[in-house]
């Protein structure tokens, strides 16, 4: 049996008529850039995550950069983020003119360790970017308390956590702004690149929209110099179709995760993802840990189960950050995890047979 890591084509087939009709409608009206489809998706996404404002843009990486630019990051400003994420989170800090300051993850949740956060704050610190990694929210209560105490802004990187919640409150609604990616493989994915930022403050929303659209909100207006980072009409129409299924797909992911947990709970040497109390995990990824990770991955791949490592090298140890001179001891949890983590298949369309086969194959390795 072959189990893919995800199956985007199967997802398309399950909503083919709606997607095809949405694409045809955009082509028929030539509403390729901005226009009614983009506006509609922005409104729908804001409503779905309970945000007053949504500014769409070209991709999730830009959403971080645009938010930091609008928050006024200037050279020398320090921004603290997690040692374990996709590089977008940290590279955009540099792109915005700031200085990246990494903080270790906690031992259990793969999210920023709030016990180590305060010691990273200096007089130059301006903001914190927590990442709701793999779909599990970071400890937003603690993070917001620390941010308020020190007068820092917070951008939540929600690229992997659409609709995740902390104590019943949606992620993205805690900080000053929230960045989203709609990269095809994300829980809500376009058929190309797409992203958005949500926020509560109208003047921040206007600043972000202006910067993303050549410095103006209307055609011909250029109040500042900006960039070109726009969501296109085709992606917006596709995203509207998919957004209407997101809650259902999220529930399916949670169901698959619960089945994995039941089937793999007592497998020797295997650590399952831990879900912190009060934090609703949306399982963008199902990441297990094993001392012999590479052997487990090879065993699964030999038996037709596709796996991925998200991510093989923690951010501080990448060649891109060699100049910071970090050592393993600086980020013990991120360092410990990078050689043990393995993402196994999880997607809403996964069948009972696929799920059972993956679990059996993992158990077969342990035996
Ligand atoms: C995917 C991702 C991004 C960037 O999104 P793109 O749309 O690929 O630019 C940022 N942060 C995290 C944590 C991500 O997983």
UniProtKB/TrEMBL annotation:
GO molecular function ontology, one term from the record: transaminase activity
CDD domains membership: AHBA_syn
- Entry annotated with the keyword Transferase: yes
Q: Which residues form the signal peptide?
A: none
The record's keywords, sorted A to Z, are: Aminotransferase, Pyridoxal phosphate, Transferase
Per the similarity annotation, which family is this? Belongs to the DegT/DnrJ/EryC1 family.
Question: What is the name attached to this protein's record?
Answer: DegT/DnrJ/EryC1/StrS family aminotransferase
Origin species: Rhizobium mesosinicum
